[in-house]
Amino acid sequence: MIAVLTGDIVNSSKIDINEWLPLLKKSLSQFGETPADWDIYRGDSFQLKINKPEGALQVALAIKASIKTIKDLDIRISIGFGDINHSAKRVTESNGSAFIYSGEKFETLKKDKINLAVKSDRQDFDSDINMFLRLALLIMDHWTENSAEIVSLALKYPEKSQAELGELIGIKQNTVSTRLKRSAFEEILAMDALFRDKLKRL
After folding, report:
1. pLDDT value of position 155
2. How many CB atoms lie within 10 A of CB 173?
3. Residue 187 contacts residue 181 (beta carbons within 8 Å)
4. pLDDT tens digits for range 40-58
5. CA of 93: how far to CAs of 47, 50, 99, 164, 193, in Å?
6. Lower Cβ count inside 10 Å, N or C end of the chain?
7. CA gap 83, 178 in Å, rounded
8. CA dist., res. 175 & res. 191, Å (int)
9. Closest CA to 107 of 135, 67, 136, 80
10. How is the beta sheet containing 74-82 ordered, strand by strand?
11. Residue 52 class from Cβ within 10 Å (0-12 exposed, 13-18 middle, 19+ buried)?
12. Going by C-beta distance under 8 Å and a sequence separation of 6 or more, which residues neighbour residue 202?
């Protein structure tokens, strides 16, 4: 099993591409090489292949947090879980059920006004995880730039203390703590742990 993330930038046309495109590329490059693992197409859309599917949700959260450090931007992401039947030099030319599920779910996101959802061959898994994500998005879609910045750092450097995270951006530990609480970071990590546990049962 692999995971495939399909996404696009919300409000990309309202912000200078030179602000968000380097950030998107930097974020994606943490999780693989282009174009075999990730690729950007149609200007503001991307696809990313994750060979360890248990990490897919945290990857999606990391990308979302990174993009939301820019005011008025957000991101839509669908995560498909399944097989890969054909591995091409460009990930956008690869094929398999993971790609199909990711693409199918992505087509429904804008219509359903949802920014993050999953699809697999197990409807019970999809229903449970998508309900958790809908609830989490009530907070995540409203992260401020400051909240998104600290979530991005906390996901990137899980071994660092709050004081150490604060040193990276010049703020105090108590400010880090406040921003993490406002972002519901502990609850989001708990959701990710639940996701990983449910995925193991697939």
Report:
1. 97
2. 14
3. no
4. 999 899 999 999 999 999 9
5. 10, 15, 10, 41, 32
6. C
7. 41
8. 24
9. 80
10. 38-41, 45-50, 2-10, 74-82, 116-119
11. exposed
12. 1, 81, 120, 122, 125
Q: Report pLDDT for 83.
A: 97
Per-residue model confidence as pLDDT tens digits over 171-190:
999 999 999 999 999 999 99
Which pLDDT value is given to residue 87? 87
The tokens describing 50, both together, are: 């994750």
Q: 3-state SS string over the chain? A: CEEEEEEEEECHHHCCHHHHHHHHHHHHHCCCCCCCCEEEECCCEEEEEECCHHHHHHHHHHHHHHHCCCCCCEEEEEEEEECCCECCCCHHHCECHHHHHHHHHHHHHHHHCCCEEEECCCHHHHHHHHHHHHHHHHHHCCCCHHHHHHHHHHHHCCCCCHHHHHHHHCCCHHHHHHHHHHCCHHHHHHHHHHHHHHHHCC
Average pLDDT, the chain: 97
Q: Which residues, 6 or more positions from 6, have their beta carbon under 8 angstroms from its beta carbon? A: 45, 46, 47, 77, 78, 80, 102, 103, 105, 106
d(CA 20, CA 102) in angstroms, rounded, equals 23
Answer yes or no: are the C-beta atoms of 28 and 38 closer than 8 Å: yes
Q: Which among 27, 6, 18 is positioned nearest to 110, based on CA atoms? A: 6
CA distance 21 to 170: 25
Q: Which residues of the chain have pLDDT under 50?
A: none
